[in-house]
Amino acid sequence: MFLLNRNASHRRPLDPIDAETLGVAGADTVERFLSHRDNHRMTPLHALPALASEFGLGAIHTKDEGFRLGLGSFKALGGAYAVFRLVLEEAGSRLGRLLDVADLDRPDVRAVAAAMTFACATDGNHGRSVAQGAQLVGARAAIFVHAGVSEERIAAIARYGAEMIRVHGNYDDSVRQAAQVSADKDWTVVSDTSWPGYERIPGLVMQGYTAIVREALRQLPRTPTHVFVQAGVGGIAAALAGHLATVLGDARPTFIVVEPARAACVFAAAQVGRPVKVAHGQPTVMAMLECYEASPVAWRVLARAADAFMTVDEDEAIAVMRRLAWPAGGDPVMVAGESGGVGLAGLIRAVADNRADLGLDGKSRVLVINTEGATDPHRYAELVGMSPTDVLEGKMTAEATA
């Protein structure tokens, strides 16, 4: 499915609160917080010249979030960042003074954090970020996981000391239960999706993701003409599209949102002009994107800043995982999880079916995001036919013999 953005708000300025959240000042705050993380490193940007030549494009670059903050996913940027901000706000309120990231290790701030519990629903990656953030500041975490979350992903979250709470149903069911239980227990919900009356914290999570596009703009030789980004509830797509719209204005690249055909909630919102719940049918292999209702805050941004919406099928997502593991023509090897290469899968589909609609030609400079590495190594090996370790070792062997 493919749809150009025909909403009345398309290309209008962002809502002022979204412009503030996703603009330069917000991104500056994120970078200041990241500078205090011991394992923070700018993630790599890879050029794919052989693939670009095959598709008749000027350039393709992939920002590889599989190395982000030791968690293997872009989600490392959002949940932990929101936890840090919320701890400092609560501590500042109780202690009667303004606090910043350098104060997180102060005994009086950690005493406040120790009395706080942060909760969220997750497909896997967001929960790891919230749990890691809570552990780093000395708070508690309660993570709600639905039936589709693999045991390997659950174990990866539990390593950070989080209480794991299993929920029958899908991701949206876990979101509702997390909100209900947290209200009863006075826990702080750090969700990456929003609902009426609950927008600020998802906005902070999205703000954390602006680090990706800010880094990419510094790393790229030229500003991209097209950006393809995958969506679950829409948070990362909205963060990147909103930052580009705020910083570049009318000179921003064409922005395309890509989703699984089996869970296309942002596409459905684009069709009717508002978030709606889509039917939950057969699960998608793109586990981190299996969401059935778009975040209202994310949609508010994407209605203005996205230019097209499209879906990809199961086999296309798996084919991209394999293609990145065994690239042609000397392109770099990359490990992409089931949801990691979906933006690239969208580009491949668009080159075949929507080249003219999107103005893709020999001058196009395309940016895609590998949003995750092999966050479930067993599942990765099942789909690719080789473990992520073996894929990367093959890359290192090739580099050593080159």
UniProtKB/TrEMBL annotation:
<feature type="domain" description="Tryptophan synthase beta chain-like PALP">
    <location>
        <begin position="39"/>
        <end position="371"/>
    </location>
</feature>
<dbReference type="Pfam" id="PF00291">
    <property type="entry name" value="PALP"/>
</dbReference>
<dbReference type="InterPro" id="IPR010081">
    <property type="entry name" value="DiNH2opropionate_NH3_lyase"/>
</dbReference>
<dbReference type="GO" id="GO:0008838">
    <property type="term" value="F:diaminopropionate ammonia-lyase activity"/>
</dbReference>
<keyword id="KW-0456">Lyase</keyword>
<dbReference type="GO" id="GO:0030170">
    <property type="term" value="F:pyridoxal phosphate binding"/>
</dbReference>
<dbReference type="InterPro" id="IPR001926">
    <property type="entry name" value="TrpB-like_PALP"/>
</dbReference>
<dbReference type="InterPro" id="IPR036052">
    <property type="entry name" value="TrpB-like_PALP_sf"/>
</dbReference>
<protein>
    <submittedName>
        <fullName>Diaminopropionate ammonia-lyase</fullName>
        <ecNumber>4.3.1.15</ecNumber>
    </submittedName>
</protein>
<keyword id="KW-0663">Pyridoxal phosphate</keyword>
